[in-house]
Every structure is written in structure tokens, then in C-alpha cells.
Write a structure and sequence with these properties.
The complex is a heterodimer of chains A (359) and B (294). Helices cover 25% and strands 34% of the residues of chain A. Chain A has 359 residues and is α+β, with helices and mostly antiparallel strands. Chain A contains 9 helices and 19 strands. Chain A is elongated. Chain B has 294 residues and is mostly helical. In chain B, 82% of the residues lie in helices and 0% in strands. In chain B, helix 13 packs antiparallel against helix 16. Classes of the chains: A alpha+beta (359), B mainly alpha (294). The interface between A and B is medium-sized, with 27 and 19 residues.
Amino acid sequence: MSIIVRNLTKRFGDFAALDDVSLEFASGELVALIGPSGCGKTTLLRVIAGLETPDAGEVVLGGRDVGALDTRERRIGFVFQHYALFRHMSVFENVAFGLRVKPRGERLAEGAIRERVNELLALVQLEPLADRYPSSLSGGQRQRIALARALAVEPSVLLLDEPFGALDAKVRKELRVWLRRLHDELAISTIFVTHDQDEALDVADRIVVMHRGRVEQAGSPQAVYDDPHTPFVHAFLGAANRFDGHLGPHGFLADGAPAPFVADATWADFVQPDVEPAHAYVRPHDLDIHPRRSGRTDGIDAHVRRVIARGASVRIELVGRAGPIEAELERDVWRSLGLREGDSVIVVPRKWRAFAQSQ
Amino acid sequence: MSHVAVMTDASHRAGCEPARRRGESRGLRWALTAAALAFLGLFLVVPLVAVFDEALSKGVRFYAASLADPDARAAVWLTLSVALIAVPSNVVFGLAASWAIAKFEFKGKALLTTLIDLPFSVSPVVSGLVYVLLFGAQGWFGPWLTSHDIQIVFAVPGIVLATIFVTFPFVARELIPLMQAQGEQEEEAARVLGASAWQIWRRVTLPNVKWGLLYGVILCNARAMGEFGAVSVVSGHIRGQTNTMPLAVEMLYNDYNFAAAFALASVLALIALATLGLKLLAERHLTADALARR
């Protein structure tokens, strides 16, 4: 089922949790809503679910305006960050809850309910736990039960509010993969909220980056990562080095650099014709390092402070004139440079994105 | 400076003389425990034993006879009836008030919470007097009541009202923090799953507070049966009609019929002991629930 939100605004006192937000989600998509705390992502989810009423705007599910519909009629599955399992009911009864509270006319027979619950428990691979109580389950198990419970009523939309936020790193990674596989199997339109960008980039078909109640950018993980439209998105998704300087027709001249960064093919969309103060953002893996004696001038002077060799790539912490710089090179490339901690180098960006300081 | 010196001194002691330090703290623990037990013994156990001792001082037959006395039986019956009306009423009020306070935001919420505590801060005698003021023959509603031939003060209805007022906070005060700690997430989850308000109440909210509710009911009942001040003012002390057990005990005592007074008092004491047992049971479940929640 497709989801459309138009001009949603929601205030709590003076604080605008949602500020004229409009988005479209195609049917069957797995979308990640990502942003820092307080950006409005959870509020958006709750407004779609009907747990909050917006001050303005509309929510359209499957072509139907659900503004007047109460939560219980929207056929939405919701998974809370802290599971919200019914503590005094067994796992079986938790999953069966949605089926048991249906109006008499729609309610299934006891046998059918039992069958469906067992099906769902098998789906989340937790059948042996049917008679246990939530308090005796681990965090990861509780979250899977919460998901099974949400799926029991066959929702057309699945909303997950930081589903793995309360779990430890290893369990998070496992459940991430598991969620993606589950989605591929069931193909229910799913929106999940997270502040973990790795999670969003790994799992989602599309990412929506939110900041201060507004949508900063929406697109495929690749598009948002490679082609950020605003400084916030660039800095939020993936690491980024920031250089202050001026933007002009020849490129970006960082403060203190002898020559400007050479213009990247894609930068032309963002440059203004006049020279103006700007910030350039460069990802660590888009930086080339050359020894000082190489004589290049289109980069930043720096010296190597620390080298962290981890896995296939090497992380290099440098100190430039304006502050710390982080670079990432492949092991072989680093080794071929023959540089050590303390050496003076020139750091040259292969790819950079500049935004006027006024943005 | 001296604080630091004490710290280093203690750690020095801990490092150099561990056996002596352990002995010291154990001695302290024993001393405190003994003091607490002595306090309990003097102020609780001794009086309790004294009640039964005095009650049986004229023999078991006298004990049984004084309990079988019609006035005594009327007192027991009245106390039980009042409790049977007051406690369920306060359960309903308490559930409604705590649900409203814990789950919703509304104007006047703070006022309601304060009002709930009012019976605790007001002397029971004053509470009783208020009812006389309102419903007595010279009271605000006095003339209206007399003309409709309704007797509230110096009759059973007055006792019931006064008891409800005095025991009102117990259930609410127990449930409010419990419901607040439990939050609204389970209720929200139930709502999204399609449950109606009544279904949410019956299947989610109520079962979650059942031990807290039982605890509140036990406290409420204990106070309802034992209330003296407010009931004393409102009842008129009519032997055999408007005497609750505590009032009957006082009346017997004032008549110098000590053994009978203590006999009735011993019944109250037995009820108190039973209440204590139930309370311990409820407490254990409450703690287990709270631990599981973490």
C-alpha cells in the first residue's frame, strides 16, 4: 500500500516537530527515516500510525485520506523501540492479541488463531518460546516477537520506531540482515526510523534524511551518500572532512592553500558565479595523500599524526592548518607511499562538494 | 580535610586489619537489628499480646459470650457492611482517578492529585465534622433531608460516607505511581493492534496493575475497618445501631467492661494480622513485577 503525507505540521508547544513535511512512499518499499534526535522522524511515524494528530496536513494510505480514521482502523503494524510487549501475557498470547480483539464478526475461530500464531512464531524462528513470558526473553527475541505481533493482523503498512535501538551492536547487525530478508519475503510497505546511518544504508531501498522537522533529502542510499544536496546531509551520512574557504569560478580555494581544489565534474550544479565564502566537504576515502616533496599545490598542507591499520583499509589521522583531517586509503596504496607518523604531506581531494556558507 | 583523613584511615584499616573491620561492621549490624526488634517488640508485639491476654482474662467462655452479645454482633456486622461498601467505591474512584492522572494530560490535573491527598492531611475528626455540618439537622442540606425523611448523620449512611472519605486516597495513591511507571506504550501497542478502549482497559491496563490494586484494597480495607475519629463524630454512638467495632470497643471500655472490650479488640487484631499476611503476599508480587520490568 502506498503512503503519502502532505504538508504535515505538528507542534509541541513552541517546538515544531514536523514543519510542512511532504513525502511519498511507493507500495512495498523499505524506507529508512534517518536523522539526529529531535528531527521529527518518530513524530512522523506516529502521525502516520494515528498515535499523534497533526496540526495541519494529511496522511493518505492507499489513496485514502485516513485523517479521520482512528489508529485501530488503519491496519498498521507498529513496532516500538522498547518492544511494548504485554508483560503479563505469554509470548503466544502477545502474538495472538491482535487476532483476539477483532470484532466478533471478523474474529477467527480459536483453531485458526492458534494456527496463525504458530505460523508467525515459525517465521521469526521463535516457536519454542511460545509459553514463555517477555521478561524471560533477550532483547533481540523480544523485538522479533514484537514484529510477529505486529504482523499478526496482516497490516498493509509496517512502521518500526528505532527497532534495534535498544540492542547491542552484534544483535543489531544480525537483526538488520534478518529484517531485510523478511521484507523481501513479505513485501509489505515498511518505514523504519533509525539514527544509525549504517543501518539505513544497509537495509533500505530509499533513505529520507530529516533535520529539525524538515526533509533534507530523499533518495536511494547510493544517491544520498554520493550526491548530498545540503551540508547537513553530507556531514550526517558517512564521515566528512570540512574545509573553510572560498568558492569561485576556478574551484574551491581552501584557507591557507596555495591553489584551489580542481573543479569536480559534478560541482558545476552548485557553484555560484561570484566568489563567496563556502565550506567544502570531502569524504576520507576521496582524499589522496602525497609527500610534501612531490610539490603539488592543489591541496592542503598537513602532517601525519596517527595511522590506524584496520582491515582492508588504513585510516590516517592528519593535522592541517585549520584542524584535524581524516583520510582513508587502501592498504597497498598506503604502503607504497612509504610514509610514517610525523611526516609532512599534501592532502589532495579527488572529489569534493562545496556549499556556500549561507546555506 | 578531616573527611579525607577518615577515608584514608578506613582504607588503611581495610588493607591492614580486614578481620577486625569485618567484625566491627557485623557488630554494628547486630546492634541496629536488635534495636529495631526491641522497638517493634515494645510498641507492637507487647500491646498485641496484652490485647489477647486481657481478652482471655475472664476465661474462654466469657470471651465467646462477649462476642456473641447482640450489640457486639451488630458492631461486627456494621463494620463489615461499611467496609463492603466503602472499599469497592474507592476502588472505582481510585481506578478512574489514577487512570486519568497517569495516562492523560488535562487542565486541573495537579489540583485533582492534591485533592486526592486531602483526606490524609485533614484530621479524621474534622472529616466527620464536615459531614455533620453538611447533612446534620442544622446543616446545609439538613432541612431538605428532614423534609424527605432521610437520615444521614447519626445513622449508617453517614458512617459509610465518612469512611469513604477517609479511605479514599489509598487505592489512588498506590495506583498513580504504578501506572505512571508503566507508561502508555502497552496501551498504544494495543490500540494499534485494533483493541477498543474497553478491551485495552480490560486486557492490558487492569492486569498490569492487579497487584498494586490488591495492595491498595488491603490498605483501604484495613483503614475502613479501623477508622475511629471520623466515624465517632458522625455516628452518634447508638448502641446496637450505629456502633462500629472500634466505637463498640471504646464504649465497652468506658463502661469498665475491660475483658469484653479487649475481646472485641482481639477480633480487630486478628483481622489486622490477616491483612498483614495478604499485604506481604501482594508486596512480593509487586516487587517481582517491578524487577521484571527492568
